[in-house]
Amino acid sequence: MANVFELLPEIMGEEQIYISNILKNLDDKQAFQFANVYRSRRRDPQVILLVTLVGFLGIAGIQRFLVDQIGLGIVYLLTGGLCLIGTIVDLVNYKKIAFEYNQKQANQIAMMLKNL
Predict the structure, then answer these.
(1) Distance between CA atoms of 61 and 7, rounded to whole angstroms?
(2) What is the number of other CB atoms lying within 10 angstroms of the CB of residue 12?
(3) pLDDT per residue over 24-48, tens digit each?
């Protein structure tokens, strides 16, 4: 089993625990493949925070487009971030938004590697 610190040093906290549980079931070759694909698909919570702040400048919803929530992104864009309330909620929950997206991506990558 590969060490998550060696493969993905940029992840921390809850995400690190989640990824280490996924890596337990993979051999070293699969773990390295997982790390390379996950790194390219992963969304950094700081990026989500920054694009959420852009919502206060009049372009709301970019954070939702980044996490593949296209419908909600269009709603945010057309309503000014649901009158800024949705943007404020996303500002508070930016780590959760990124973590949920990253969990989904990690599960997809792990399933893909198991099917190879």
Answers:
(1) 32
(2) 11
(3) 888 888 888 999 999 999 999 999 9
CA–CA distance, 76 with 103 (Å, rounded to integer): 23
Asked whether the beta carbons of 35 and 7 are under 8 A apart, the reply is: yes
How far apart CA 49 and CA 97 sit, in angstroms, is 10
Instruction: Report the amino acid identity of residue 29.
Output: K
46 half-sphere exposure, CB direction, 13 A CA radius: 3
The Cα–Cα gap between 101 and 82 comes to 21
Round to whole Å and give the CA distance between 52 and 84: 10
Start-to-end CA distance of the chain, whole Å, equals: 18
Question: What sign for the dihedral angle of Cα 25, 27, 29, 35?
Answer: positive
Q: Which residues of the chain have pLDDT under 70?
A: 1-2
